[in-house]
Amino acid sequence: MRMSLAQRVLLTWLFTLLFLIMLVLKLDEKAPWNWFLIFIPVWIFDTILLVMLIVKMAGRCKSGFDPRNGSQNMKKKAWYLIAMLLKLAFCLALCAKLQRFTTMKLAYVFIPLWALLIGGMVELGYNIFHVRRD
Fold first, then answer.
1. What's the pTM?
2. Which of 56, 72, 84, 111 has the fewest Cβ atoms surrounding its Cβ within 10 A?
3. What is the DSSP letter of 27?
């Protein structure tokens, strides 16, 4: 099943809205929930994205797959997978810090996010300034 752009946008807005509502309830102290529960919409959304990405990457392994432009496309999908895992690591570390499961410094919690942002800037720079030699 392939999702249209409109369906993906609607799904993104829905999960973002659910997360923000739960976050506001937690910050207003109206919901005494665990921080890991507040992030449930984020976990569900990330799981959906990871499954879709892994299915697309696994689709390259089936017989009869046309490998044209394959290595560049696979590198991009590998970067997306790494980016998703960095975001997941950041969210888990942030929840652990907010829930006081760890005494880790806040600066260390943000290392996966910084790595994600630097990687995103490198990819953006590569896509803007890369000169194709055809």
1. 0.79
2. 72
3. H
